[in-house]
Input
Amino acid sequence: MSVFDRGERKVMTSVAVASDAVARQRIVETALELFAAKGIDSVSVRELTGHAKVNVGAVNYYFGSKAKLAELVFEQLAIRISKRRIDDLERVLRDAAERSARPDLASVVRAFIRPYVDPAMKTEGALLAQLILQHRLRPTSTTMRLIKKHFDPLAQRFVGALAQCCPEIPRPEFYWRYTFMVSTVVLTVSDLSPRHRLVRLSAGTADPSDAAATEEALVRYLVGALSAPV
Amino acid sequence: MSVFDRGERKVMTSVAVASDAVARQRIVETALELFAAKGIDSVSVRELTGHAKVNVGAVNYYFGSKAKLAELVFEQLAIRISKRRIDDLERVLRDAAERSARPDLASVVRAFIRPYVDPAMKTEGALLAQLILQHRLRPTSTTMRLIKKHFDPLAQRFVGALAQCCPEIPRPEFYWRYTFMVSTVVLTVSDLSPRHRLVRLSAGTADPSDAAATEEALVRYLVGALSAPV
DNA sequence: CTCAATGTCAAACATATGTTTGAAACATGT
DNA sequence: ACATGTTTCAAACATATGTTTGACATTGAG
Output
């Protein structure tokens, strides 16, 4: 059973009204890091509370359940990332409009993959990837709600932008390609192998620990994929 | 903890020497189906033995542990799939050689994705995807061994074939693109959402339950991705 | 200060899961 | 028919995990 499957059982014992309890914040921060690094289901509340230096019961005390904590973490994340991505995309589209040119496909792609590859957003990107993966592999009403609410509109905008970049390609094609792109990126960034297969296969020629190189290779791949003729 | 993390604890109570026990076979078959459909960790041995109409202890009796069963199932699968894929690829390369032309990129791609999209290999493809996913998300020495042994040589052959298709692209680039392609395909075919996001986003225009349409869209995407200029 | 609200803690609880056990049933060769 | 090796079965076991509990500590307003 995955985290999001478990519903609450009963209401919290008591309610923390308005205290900015240190424990609460530490739990959220630790959850962010651990969930991003190992996936939600692989982090037990004992491990979580241990790292956060907080009692085992704290998660249930403050959040009601592990599932509620995860939901909260993911919702906050979705809001932050979604906003930033839309800003990035809007900027690309605005620039193109000012030059009265079609937007640049590579720029749109970069706006899309930024959260996943920007070192400054490493944890957030990994966490987002976990959310998507979680939903792809074990969809629940909760993950469904989060995706629908925060990422469906985003997806529509990106599909629209892609269609602007390549007007010769019929729009429905971009629904396919968009979901393929999500698959490509999400699984790429959530590869947790300590020694990545790439270095083994390529005998060191390709190095996935080089973030810039990974980004460039991804952009080349995705631009080619998205602009392929039908 | 994932299946493959668990080692054996002690030797089996007794050994089934040479009987083709019905139970044993039924367990393997059921494991194949359930693992492919839900992922390994999501299938409890009680669920498994329940479906196989076999006692709970049977898995441990015949295979020693759930992990050993999974390993066996996956190794058998890896052998079957790997052989078929190499045959497919060799045929494509041979045909090209006979025409003394470069091999067709789309044909190579089709040889690669066949196990994942061919309806006749539906279960096997899903199972293979589960193995790759398992390794990407929670690599263990067992998954590592299986991948290395059965799929690294295959990967090298495909990279070689891709380089033949596009001689103007430097070979190291194909190591990147090959792993990206694996990501794309694996996550695409392991999407278990009953109502796929695609139909929601595209308002029904794109239908992932249409296997042929999915394959064509995938081929277009991958051919574009793999042949993109550097 | 008082005391009620809030937070902390260790221990216990409930459940799910992989595994083991020991007896009974079955099969098979002599 | 017996003995022996094999299979089946229900029950118990061990462990991991999320959760709850009740006692105790801390805090802050009146």
